[in-house]
Amino acid sequence: MKSTDKNDQVRINRFLALCGIASRRAADELVLQGRVMVNGKVITTPGFKIDPAHDEVIVDGKEFARPEKRKVYILLNKPRNVITTSSDERNRETVLDCIETEERVFSVGRLDRKTTGVLLLTNDGILANKLTHPSSNVKKEYIALLDEKFTQKHLQQLTGGMRLKDTGEKVSPCRAKILDDGMQVLLSIHEGKNHQVRRMFETLGFTVKRLERVAYAGLQAGELRRGEWRYLSRNEVRELYKLVENS
């Protein structure tokens, strides 16, 4: 029976963005151009909502979601210079080139091309939507290698809540710890603004030379080397759903 829970529904532009097909704005254009079908019908309303667990979504004749498909959950230790979108117009390597699975999956959230580390991929649109929704407050941990030593004074500025220098956007207070000789910082955030970690350090006058995400929603790479991947266990999937059950 089809779910009628509105909390499971997501706007079509957000779903297509989660799948790595296009940005939300570009997804709206796809809809307006009549290139998107939901359950066999062309939709032309950008605000149209779907239920990823039950609705079939087709873009330009290619299927991106099908009801009752096998759910797949993959943890990848993303290498440097790999793109997190499903395809790239410049033919660069994407995260899908790093894994082998019959199901079509997409990354949950994004890491920029230069950032390495923990990345979750799935075809579970409901879980992906909940994990990336601002209300979920999913914790993300990074280790940043900087161009200069980081001081306690800078640490207070970093963690106390700040405005990004480039746009004036406010970011929430976070946790951080200076590592080793002060050239590295372990940073824990709950937001997901574009290039947020790099921009936070740049606001304080530092350049991030290397950035690695070491944890996402409690998931860590563990023994996975760079470029290696594995399926999540049932218990790990249950824990992810518990994490977002109220979001």
Quick structural overview:
The protein is built from 6 helices and 17 strands. It has 247 residues and is α+β, with helices and mostly antiparallel strands.
Structure description:
The protein is an alpha+beta fold and 247 residues long. It has 3 domains: 6-65, Structural Genomics Hypothetical 15.5 Kd Protein In mrcA-pckA Intergenic Region, Chain A (Roll); 73-135 and 218-243, Alpha-Beta Plaits (2-Layer Sandwich), CATH 3.30.70.580; 139-216, Alpha-L RNA-binding motif (Alpha-Beta Plaits, 2-Layer Sandwich). It has helices spanning 12-18, 24-32, 125-132, 152-159, 196-203, 234-243; strands at 10-11, 36-38, 41-42, 49-50, 57-59, 62-65, 73-78, 106-107, 116-122, 140-146, 162-163, 170-171, 175-179, 184-189, 208-216, 219-220, 229-231. The strands form 4 sheets. Strands 7, 8, 9, 10, 13, 14, 15, 16 and 17 form a 9-stranded mixed sheet that branches. Helix 1 packs across helix 2 (24-32).
